[in-house]
Write a structure and sequence with these properties.
Elements lengths: L48 H18 L12 H11 L5 E2 L21 E2 L2 H17 L12 H18 L15 E3 L5 E3 L8
Antiparallel strand pairs: 1-2, 3-4
Helix pairs in contact: 1-3, 2-4, 3-4
């Protein structure tokens, strides 16, 4: 699985990135965590891995909007801009996605290299959108106006998942939990019982 991190090649990181002023309660400033920035006056508890990744992803998206032509403010961002961002990230992907004409299409472990492009893995994009969706609302965005939760974005991710599963011969369907496991547990009396029937013992 690929992981989206910052800085993104080709996008310079600056000290304070203004994503545009807002009128109501929407986002006015994008978070920045550039190297060399002065520490906060009061020490804060360390962020979790998820929170750090979410902050880096938010900074990356803000940089993308800032370098967009024309530059965009977060409140003006729509689902189409989110899709542009996801396609832009494909150039930094590390997952081989075979074309339908490729002889290795649908083969999980191809025996030889091929000229098919590298893309961002579906799982990485799906997790990225989840973090950006949360970050958008944390910075004042309204849930009903969240471009990361738009139907077009959900359909895009589903199409990417479906095509990559066919291309790479990998199923992304969740495995159904078996009702009764094959492993047996011995009762105190020595009787052998299936795990699914020993709720009190597990």
């Amino acid at each position: 699985m690929d992981f989206i991190t910052t800085p993104v090649p080709g996008i310079p990181i600056s000290g304070n990135i203004k994503c545009g002023s807002t009128n109501n309660q929407l986002i006015s400033n994008c978070l920045t965590m550039s190297p060399g920035s002065s520490p906060a006056p009061a020490p804060l508890p360390p962020l979790s891995r998820y929170e750090n990744q979410k902050r880096r992803d938010w900074n990356t998206f803000c940089q993308y909007l800032r370098n967009h032509r024309p530059p965009l403010a977060v409140p003006l961002c729509s689902s189409s801009h989110v899709l542009e961002f996801l396609r832009y990230l494909d150039q930094f992907g590390k997952t081989k996605v075979h074309n339908q004409a490729c002889p290795f299409f649908g083969i999980p472990n191809p025996p030889a290299p091929c000229p098919c492009p590298l893309r961002q893995a579906w799982g990485s994009l799906d997790a990225l959108i989840g973090r950006l969706r949360a970050a958008y609302e944390e910075h004042g965005g309204l849930p009903e106006a969240n471009p990361f939760g738009a139907r077009a974005v959900r359909l895009f991710l589903r199409d990417v998942r479906d095509f990559q599963s066919k291309s790479r011969g990998i199923s992304y369907e969740k495995k159904r939990k078996r009702a009764k496991q094959q492993v047996a547990i011995k009762s105190p009396a020595g009787a052998t019982l299936p795990c699914g029937e020993t709720n009190a013992m597990i």
